Amino acid sequence: MTASFLATRLTMLVVTVLVASLGIYGAFMLAPGDPATLLVGGARKPDPAVLDRIRAEYHLDDPFFAGWWHWFSGCLHGDFGRSLVYRDSVGHLIGERAGDTFALVAYAAVLVLVLGTAIGTVAALRGGRTEALLTAATSGVMAVPTFIMSVLLIWVFAVELPWFPVYGSGTGFGGTLSHLTLPAVALAVSWVGYVAQVTRTSVRTELRGEHVETARSRGVPESVVIRRHVLRNASGPIFAVSGVGIAGLIATTAVAEQAFGIGGLGALMIDAALKQDLAVVQAVSLLFVVLFVAVNTVVDLVSAALDPRTAQGGSR
Amino acid sequence: MSTAPAPVLPSAGRTPPVRRRRLDTATLAAAAVVGVFVLLALFGPLLAPHDPNAVDPLGVNAGSSAGHLLGTDDTGRDILSRILCGARASMAAPALVVLVSTAAGTALALCAAWFGGWTDRLVSGALDVVFGFPGLIMAVLAAAVFGPGLAAPVIALSIAYLPLVTRVVRAAALKERSLPYVSALGLLGASTPRIWLRHLLPNLAPLILVQATIGFGYALLDVAAVSFIGLGSQPPAPEWGLMVSNGAPGILTGQPQQSLYAGLMIVVLVIAVNLLGSGLSRRLPGGAA
Prior knowledge:
The complex is a heterodimer. Helix content of chain A is 80%, strand content 1%. A two-stranded antiparallel ribbon of chain A has the order 1-2. Chain A starts with a helix and ends with a helix. Helix content of chain B is 68%, strand content 0%. About 2% of the residues of chain B have low confidence. Chain A: It comes from Yinghuangia soli.
């Protein structure tokens, strides 16, 4: 990985976050009506004195860029402003809920990585009917979105077979694990299918490679061939796709949280959007965008470290 | 000089189409399923046996019967009628997302590929930034700003889908642009709009169509998800994503029919659209056999 590739990717990360923050802040200015009224959050006839105080607090009368910088630099320092709807500081609201979202996304990410690569590898190595079956199953599962999978899982594994709790996030490690299992599966399942398919193709391609034939003819044991010559070479595309998938989990965690009644960041964003509490929506969406872009950048950098050829093709 | 064969001038008409391969059975079946769904979107309300919004306080959460083939929901509305009438609402919004993002994305891609230089860098850079914005987050943000309803999420998703279209079309347009027939047309004095409309676009059209098909599958899921979380279609609209969430409380009390049937419609349509998209892409020149 060259220094220039690293510099390009990091510059892109910063530029994307800056422009995204301008977009998020600007969207708020596009809102029909007086932004100060919106910040009060739907109260019919707000007191003019209150509106004036909000205008001053949110720097609504400042020029656009000054207002944006005030908001954005505050966010960088962890000061996300106050929510007038929840009557709390946005930073506190986020801090309370970040843990659940982190646990859910991490759980789903482990499922994507472990199940996706395992299913794909088994399909490629076994071949024949197993491969056909697993390929059909993973293709089918890829078409089931998180919200429908949530409903199906609740029906099958919480109502018909009461194995898992339906709502909330539980306490303690065991409680969290059993509460988050169904949401994590619902969130992960279509990416598990996708990663499995990429793994299968990638492993298949490597199995046909000349280096594998050479290793076998040298008498290298099959398990070593698979581990050292097939899986290691196939890991590049698998890692890249899993990374995109894990970034995607950040975007869809809101749906799983909503479906299973988990009070995480995604559920907070949806609830705030329904109440038109823009201070909260702005802060949480900025946070999601930063995480999404950061995960994608890390994946690019690690991919480049694994295989320097991607850096040459990737830097424009 | 006179012995050289007369050059075949491409100005005679459109560039000849690529020879076609026959579609396989799975793609044809997928096309048929998509066709049925399109017919439902057009004529669903005519087929519905009941008024989709007629409540019946005495017949709530009923199972299948001769009067209500798929049963009734928590307010006694006929589920079959709501699913049939919902086809239009559920498919029109994603279709609009695909139409807008494909049209705008193709225009951007052609500009980037044709003018190159700063235009290309600006378009590609801007789209890289948009790509950093997950569609669902953009849709929630738009709904927060403009209020719940389908209009804001449709606009947001149209923007979020731009990079997908533009990247693919730009790459293909760059390749097409470097072909000798394009410079020959330029030498023959064909104007830029003529080259774009009569030659580049027809040659790129199959690729654009495949991208639009694949995009429709994604858009359908995203729009339905936005409705599911309560920020898209509003009650009492018979939209499938909204029906899945309306039926969710019923699942806990043993009446999963509303959620399951509405969810099934979405999944079947997405599988058909994906199969159709990959079938069509195999037919593209250079597509995998």
